[in-house]
Amino acid sequence: MVGAMVRIRKAAMDGSTPAATTGAAQRALSRHVFRVLFRAIGSILAQAMSVAQPEIAREVFGTPGDTDVVWAHGWGHARANLAPLAHSLAPLGQHTLLDLPGFGDSPAPPEPWGTADYARAVAAVLPGPVVWVGHSFGGKVGLMLAARRPDLVRGLVLIASSGLKRRGRLWVRAKIAAFKVTKRVCPWAAGRFFGSSDYKNAGPMRATFVRVVNEDLAAEAAAVRCPTLLLYGQGDTETPPEIGRRLAALIPRARLEILDGLDHYTVLTEGRHRIATRIKEFAACL
Q1: Which of 10, 31, 168, 248 is the most buried (most CB within 10 A)?
Q2: Is the model's pLDDT at 29 over the cut of 70?
Q3: pLDDT mean over 202-207
Q4: Average pLDDT of 185-194?
Q5: 32 in the same domain as 141
Q6: Both 44 and 178 in a single domain?
Q7: Total domains present in the chain
Q8: 30 and 18 within one domain
Q9: Is 255 a residue whose pLDDT tops 70?
């Protein structure tokens, strides 16, 4: 390559090659160099992206058919938390239970992630258009996925799902003010005394938790076009029915059910059979 440039310059100086020809050769050489560099940079970026994408552990069972169901757990949980509910619906078709990155058997993300990063990661392992069933944070990921990749989600079931910021009450605003003061005076104590249980237990995932919990997916909810079933426990204080009502108002094809006697966690245990019945009815209508 360098030798070619030297020969072109020498020929031009000797007058043996017209200037126009020399210019054309130089431009051709420049284009060739650019293409080589572009391919090299693209290869490096592709390798970096593949390294940065953690493996997603999953369990697959059932028989492939008309309905593929993907299950996503809440923050701090793993696929085992959804396994009893998922296995009770085995006849629906093929089921995939995910361990979201940073939980269960899946390694943590290489850097702090947001909900969109989780959605991109799971999109790479989906078997095709699926019914997404997500509990809490798993519902939030499904909401993002359905908005950004409608080709991958044909139905959405959100169980006690997060996704919208809670409307502040007086005691909440007072707690936030106290947290800010404590953080300035005694930073180490702020998270210990004022953080949620999820924040306190987040460990290395704490920066990801902070990103995720501060995201409001109102715009994404309004962009969801697939049929959506919202299931919330009447006694849920983590993601109260108010969140479900607001999501139902935003999602065009949403149906909301509020279940008496259940909270954020008992929807998956004591309420498992009630939830299973509603998911089965929902899937039959898709």
Answers
A1: 248
A2: no
A3: 72
A4: 46
A5: no
A6: no
A7: 3
A8: yes
A9: yes
> How many CB atoms within 10 Å of residue 137?
26
Express each pLDDT in 88-97 by its tens digit: 999 999 999 9
Answer yes or no: do 60 and 202 share one domain. Answer: no
pLDDT tens figures, 213-235? 999 999 999 999 999 999 999 99
Same domain, 89 and 186: no
Pairing of strands 130-135, 93-98: unpaired
Residue range(s) defining the domain that contains residue 28:
2-51
- Residue 35 has what pLDDT? 55
Residue that the structure tokens 């259940």 belong to = 262
Q: Give the CA radius of gyration of the chain.
A: 26
DSSP character string of the chain: -HHHHHHHHHHHHHT-S-HHHHHHHHHHHHHHHHHHHHHHHHHHHHHHHHHHS----EEEEE--SSEEEEEE--TT--GGGTHHHHHHTGGGEEEEEE--TTSTTSPPPSS---HHHHHHHHHTT--SSEEEEEETHHHHHHHHHHHH-TTTEEEEEEES---SPPPP-HHHHHHHHHHHHHHHH-HHHHHHHHS-HHHHT-GGGHHHHHHHHT---HHHHHH--S-EEEEEETT-SSS-HHHHHHHHHHSTTEEEEEETT--TTTTTTTTHHHHHHHHHHHHHT-
Please tell me whether residues 86 and 7 are part of one structural domain.
no
Per-residue pLDDT at 185: 52
Q: Are residues 135 and 244 in the same domain?
A: yes
Q: List the CATH number of the domain containing 241.
A: 3.40.50.1820
